[in-house]
Amino acid sequence: MAKTAFPHTGTSGLAGPMAALDGLLRDWLPRQRWFAGKDRPVTELRLLSMTELFPGCLHLLVHAGHAGGHGGGHGGVPSPGGTPPPGDCYQLLLGVQEHPSPRLGRALIGRTQPTGPLGGLVVYDALQDPRAARLLLERLRRPGSAGPLRFEADPAVRLPPSLPPRLLDAEQSNTSLVYGDAFILKVFRRIQPGVNPDLEVTDALARQGCRRVPAPAAWFRTVQPFGATLGVVQPYLPDASDGWTLALEALTGGQDFTVRAGELGRAMAEVHLALAAAFPVAEGPGGLGESGRTAAAMAERLDAAARSVPALRPFVPGLRSAFGSLVSRAAGPPAQRIHGDLHLGQVLRTGREWFVIDFEGEPSRPLAERRSAHSPVRDIAGMLRSFDYAARQRRPWRPEWAGRCRDAFCAGYASGSGWDPRAEHALLRAYETDRAVYEVLYEARHRPDWLAVPMAAIERLAVRGD
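Below the sequence we write its predicted structure tokens.
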């Protein structure tokens, strides 16, 4: 139990707790899967807010500053001029107690220095503590507030008490807890001002009656130092398998996956149609001016990735040609709200039905960009790249398997939407190239052993123009 209670500490009075935590967090944060600044030294840790959720558990928003410019997420406190400082804002739930428990295990962060408001206490990641996880659910079951935190829920959904928590171990950019195989809580780690799309979009789709997306049951947010979504609870599908697992099982067993890929394409078309109905849709396909701006943004991302990943540089001229084709084209479906980070790991299948999850978008991109309208071809390209990733997981490589799945997905999408992505080869190539460039940068930073997978696509897209 903490020696001192902190009902809520605003922007003043945070220096003492941060002094106690600074050294521990500088060592612990870069080792977390969801920490985005692994390739940049942490130059500053600043406590933005701290609230005691319940005895022994503190809720923190921490700004991490980095050398070398913006962290990409624009998650710091906005300046008076409205421009966030360089770095990222992270949400932490920290357990604090006087005596360490043997069951803390990998959740342990360390012990603070003996002086100060948190002096001499053991600090750990509370989301890995079953007791803290249970108490967090109890807080979500009862709408209300704690300092700047607001807990809200759909009054039509009942969250049962005393559901046992289970931490998901899967690689992800956030932290998820499953409660009693009935609900799942996603706690966002990188926090940006505004409504998170994973709450905004799922709520809007539920109002549209879209059955492909689990609806939000409860959520929590903060109003200081800025308004932001912190986490969301949704129904859990205990018997579901994600598309990535199913694809690898099919590859291993030498089974056909084209039927399921086609059904997935139709399901995604259904979701896109529901998104277009739920959110305003741009008139027409965007015009040549909009296509030019999209191409310029793609080229800018390519240049930035090439500066960070030397292996990409020889292919830059060929890749630029893929983006250049957009400038002279205005074809394709209109811009609308999309998933933003679609791949086989973001879809679940239970029985004969596909469900789509994780509408947060790419966490590395600014929230305003993730909430804006984009071509649905961007989602399609993400799924096509995912089939290629899956085919690369088994040797010998099965490019014909990926090709059949890609074709079946597009055919299924066309049957559900009335528009065939294959009809605009140049448009699809541009978005697939943009996705592959993103993958190269991601793998170079987080999983260097996987870099060869997107680089194979880069070579194909740049040299052969496929």
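The first helix runs from residue 15 to 28.
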